[in-house]
C-alpha cells in the first residue's frame, strides 16, 4: 500500500487508517478482545500500517490491546494516540504520554494529538502555549515524532501553530457530515497539514448496517449520534437507497464507496474502525477504489439530502 507523508513531518501513513476506539470497549458493547486483536492483525496483513487510538478509549485499554497486537511488528507500524483535554497542563501531558508509551509497548509515538481543545467537556482551560511547550519537549526528546490536534476550529488550529509545527488535524468527515469542507480542509491544504477524517462511515450508517428504528444497547454511545435522531434518520435512509446503485455499478460495498469519497479530498485520509477481521479487510480494499468525477458528483448531490438539514455544530453527538 502506497504511503503518504503526514504534513511536513517524516512520518509516512497509509491512505486508510484503522481506528481502535472500539477496542477500548467503553461505549461499544459486545466487543471481544480476541476478535479485536484479529481485526488489527488482519488490517496489518492487508497493508494498513497506521493505527489511531487515544488514552480516553477505555482509559488506556484500547492502547493496550493495540500494543499487544502489534508489538512484534512495531518497526513496521505507525502509532497515533491522543491526550485527553483534562491532561493538557505541561506535567499532566508528559505523564499521559509516558503512560501511553507504556500501554502501547513502545518507546516513541509517531503522532501525538490533542484530543479536544482545552475547556472541552468541562475540562480546565489551559493556554495552548503551555500544551505545545510540553509537546515540543517530547518531540525534542524523541518520544514523539509529530504533533497533531483533533476537533479544533481553524482559529484554534492557527493559535496552536504559533507555538510549534502541527502536522495533522483530526475531525469528523463523511458523506453525511461535511461541515469541515467549508474552512478546515481548505486551510489544511493551504498549510500542508494532513486531514485525518474520523467517523468516515458515520459510525456504521454508511456501511448500511442500520435500518430506521434501530435500537442500540443501553451503553452504546451511538444512540446519541445526531444522524440517528428522528428526522435525520429518515433522510439518512432515503439517501442510502439512492447511493446503493452507485456502489453496485462499481462492484464495491457502500462502506468502500464512502471511504473512497473521503480519500478523493486532497491530503485527506479516513480513520475507519472495525470490530472484526472481515470489516478490517473490507476497509483496506477501499484504497484501490477509483470513483469517477461522475460518481463523485452523483454521490455528493445525494449526500445533500442529509447534510443540507444539518446545522454548523461540528459535534456528532447529541449532548
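Q: What amino acid sequence fits the structure above?
A:
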Amino acid at each position: 500500500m502506497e504511503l503518504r507523508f503526514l504534513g511536513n513531518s517524516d512520518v509516512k501513513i497509509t491512505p486508510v487508517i484503522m481506528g481502535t476506539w472500539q477496542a477500548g470497549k467503553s461505549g461499544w458493547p459486545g466487543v471481544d478482545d480476541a476478535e479485536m486483536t484479529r481485526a488489527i492483525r488482519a488490517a496489518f496483513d492487508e497493508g494498513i500500517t497506521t493505527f489511531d487510538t487515544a488514552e480516553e478509549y477505555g482509559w488506556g485499554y484500547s492502547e493496550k490491546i493495540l500494543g499487544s497486537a502489534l508489538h512484534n511488528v512495531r518497526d513496521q507500524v505507525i502509532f497515533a494516540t491522543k491526550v485527553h483535554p483534562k491532561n493538557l497542563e505541561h506535567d499532566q501531558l508528559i505523564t499521559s504520554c509516558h503512560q501511553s508509551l507504556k500501554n502501547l509497548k513502545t518507546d516513541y509515538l509517531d503522532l501525538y494529538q490533542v484530543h479536544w481543545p482545552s475547556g472541552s467537556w468541562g475540562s480546565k482551560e489551559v493556554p495552548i502555549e503551555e500544551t505545545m511547550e510540553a509537546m515540543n519537549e517530547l518531540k525534542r526528546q524523541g518520544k514523539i515524532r509529530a504533533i497533531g490536534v483533533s476537533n479544533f476550529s481553524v482559529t484554534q488550529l492557527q493559535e496552536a501553530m504559533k507555538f510549534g509545527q502541527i502536522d495533522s488535524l483530526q475531525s469528523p468527515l463523511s458523506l453525511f457530515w461535511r461541515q469541515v469542507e467549508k474552512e478546515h480542509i481548505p486551510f489544511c491544504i493551504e498549510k500542508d497539514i494532513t486531514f485525518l477524517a474520523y467517523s468516515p462511515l458515520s459510525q456504521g450508517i454508511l456501511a448500511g448496517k442500520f435500518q430506521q428504528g434501530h435500537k442500540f444497547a443501553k451503553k452504546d454511545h451511538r444512540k446519541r449520534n445526531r444522524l440517528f435522531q428522528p428526522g435525520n434518520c429518515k433522510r439518512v435512509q432515503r439517501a442510502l437507497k439512492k447511493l446503493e446503485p452507485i456502489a453496485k455499478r462499481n462492484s464495491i460495498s457502500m462502506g468502500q464507496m464512502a471511504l473512497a469519497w473521503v480519500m478523493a479530498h486532497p491530503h485527506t485520509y479516513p480513520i475507519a474502525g472495525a470490530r472484526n477481521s472481515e470489516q478490517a479487510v473490507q476497509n483496506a480494499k477501499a484504497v484501490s477504489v477509483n470513483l469517477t468525477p461522475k460518481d463523485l458528483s452523483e454521490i455528493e448531490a445525494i449526500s445533500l439530502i442529509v447534510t443540507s438539514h444539518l446545522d454548523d455544530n461540528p459535534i456528532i453527538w447529541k449532548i
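Q: And what stands out in the fold?
A: The chain has a mean pLDDT of 95.
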